[in-house]
Amino acid sequence: MPSALGKRKAPPAEEDVVDAQEALRRHFEARFKMPAGIAPCAAPPSKKQARDEDEDGEEDDGDSDSGSDHSDAESWDGVSSEEEEDDDSEEEESHVVEVVDHTKSSSTSITSLMSKKELKAYLSSRPPSHSSAAQSDSNPKKKKADESQAEDSAAFLANDLALQRLIAESHILSAAGGNSSHWQSSAAAGTATNTRAFAAGRTAKKTTDLRFQALGAKDSILAQSKMPMSMRKGIVSHNTAKEAKRRREAKENGIILEREVKKSKPSRSKKPSGGRGEREVGAPGVGRMRGATLRISAREAEVLNRPGPARRGGR
Amino acid sequence: MADSKPQFVRLTGHRAFTQRLVLATLSGKPIHISKIRSTSPTNPGLAPHEVSFLRLLEAVTNGSVIDVSYSGTTLAYQPGLITGTVPGAGTSLSNDLIEHTIPANNTRGITYFLLPLALLAPFSKAHMNVRFSGPGVITSSTHSTGDLSIDTFRTAILPLYGLFGIPPARIELRVLSRSCPGPGGRGGGGVVELRFASQVRLPKTLHLNRKPGRIRRIRGVAYCTGVSASHNNRMITSARGVLNQLVSDVHVAAQYDPAPLVQEKGSTMKKKIGIGFGLSLVAESSAEGVIYAADVVAPPEGGVVPEDIGTRCAYQLLEIIAQGGCVSAAAAPTVMTLMAMGSEDVGRVRLGREVLGREETIGLARDLKAFGAASWGIRDADKEEDEATGELIVSVKGTGVGNVGRKVA
């Protein structure tokens, strides 16, 4: 207590009150342990700052708590509100300057300003016709509670962006340990990669990349395009072997998995084009041309030999 | 059939200048006003805004003769037909507008010109499209002369035309640039366009003699020109502080504009002029057509906090509502004139005592009598069991003149 010598001391009653508050706060925190994520709040400015003001006569930087503490030594009014609206109360004692900040938009701005519809009616060039304004007011109030569609109908779900994103990214999130009820996911949560610092950021990178692809990106930014051929072949073969093993084990154990998506090889260049509209340019009208041989199937021969509609000219 | 010597209606004084000219134009009777500020040593004769209004009248009518004496203290006006915007006669073909410039020494708000113009417009032959520009257009309300702002005009006066069968949906008031009064209360750089496309033969007879009803909601516009936009929020907050205790539905629109630039005379430099802020509040009642409006603006020399403006406007609105009646004092001249120009039928309107007892309203009644209209009948509104309303029912008999251009012979 360095300032107890001479000069002006803070009155003891004030200190008792403040100490009591401190004691209560400590008791509360001891009883209800604060979760790890919450940072401790700033120390109450009462004691130290009051002493500073007494000694140095410093100006208070807009902290109204000290001002109210100082003025109401006996009665505790509670914490004064952050936003001060009265700008002409300058306290005479101890150089407390009340700073009023009008730059940030006050909470009333949302409610006091009008909806877009009303703004259109009131700020446009036409005079507002009051009967129509009254009707538009009452309609949104009569909410359509008897909605024919249930809340989880397909149309709503298809438009629910958050839901669709979750479904699309579920594999990534599960691999990062998001699903605690699945054995694989909870096991993954304990691995070194997922407990490192910034693990959440790494999954965020992957999910963002997925979103970009949904929005129309051509390639994934995380895909490795250049790799030695042997390395790539090794990775691909390892993955196929893993997948084949999974399917085989499941089949042996009677577990039904999702349908296999067969990787299609590039199709044969020369399709049997016996149908309409699939002909290449320059190909003969019937049959298949291979080298110098034209093969006509029996059915096509039948069609050719039929006496069709009278052809113009003899040739 | 012109008389050899037209019988002038003789009036004196500069008061109710535009109102008298409008009545003359609507009724077709020539008017002679003398002793216009004849006792004033500094500014005798017509004021600049009055001269500007005469020019405007000349532009929208056809065949009117205006004679101003040398000193400006006497005026003889022989009205012509109200034509409006006829292509070729004063309007360019491209934008179909009459351009009217207001001089820089003007001290009245633009509603000083708009109110009488809107009275003439339903009776004109063609659409009335006028654009006000120039170094003297003040779109906000004025502190010293008590003119309305254009927001009040648009939201509180123009909808009343709907009661007379003049559809307000065909009236358009475009504010291309806003401006508060310049230094000394004179000048401003606003640009306003009025497009009045609803011409009628005769306004409908108005029967607004029921009780005014309770205030259902309050709307308004807070405008800031050339000052910080946070003033809007502050005005709205302080006005809501007063009004929310009485009406729950209070919504005010905020309008911010940068300060307009006006070309100074004699130089190519432009000057920022017309800086200020103000609030216009409009209260709508449950009865249709009953609108009360209040308008407060910061004085041109400044020194007033937005919170003061907000609370003052809220209290002014409450005072106007307390005056009662179905028509507020600001709209009373418009409504009474339209009733008087209606068909030869008796219309009834309910006015508060303080509204009817104003010099303005009584002056209007006297002027109408001078122009040959019938006198008004005034009686007490029926006393309810609980409250003595103190309101009066005024019966006005229309003259049946209407729109000469639309007369079906």
From TrEMBL, chain A:
Cross-referenced InterPro entries: Ribosomal_biogenesis_FAF1-like
GO CC: one term? nucleolus
For bias kind Basic residues, which ranges apply?
1-10, 264-273
Q: Where is this region: Disordered?
A: 1-22, 35-152, 239-315
What protein name does the entry list?
Protein FAF1
Which intervals carry biased composition (Basic and acidic residues)? 94-104, 249-263
- Which residue stretches does the UniProt record annotate as biased composition, category Low complexity? 105-114
Which intervals carry biased composition (Acidic residues)? 52-66, 80-93
Task: Give the GO terms filed under biological process for this record.
Answer: maturation of SSU-rRNA from tricistronic rRNA transcript (SSU-rRNA, 5.8S rRNA, LSU-rRNA)
**Polar residues bias locations:** 126-138
From TrEMBL, chain B:
RNA 3'-terminal phosphate cyclase insert domain span: 211-321
List the SUPFAM superfamilies. EPT/RTPC-like
List, for all copies, the residue spans of the domain called RNA 3'-terminal phosphate cyclase. 12-349
| Chief location of this protein within or outside the cell | nucleus
The source's domain of life comes to Eukaryota
Task: List the record's Gene Ontology CC terms alphabetically.
Answer: nucleolus
Query: Pfam families, per this entry?
Result: RTC, RTC_insert
Name a GO molecular-function annotation. transferase activity
The answer on whether this UniProt entry bears the keyword Transferase reads: yes
Similarity comment: family membership = Belongs to the RNA 3'-terminal cyclase family. Type 2 subfamily.
The name under which this protein is listed is RNA 3'-terminal phosphate cyclase/enolpyruvate transferase
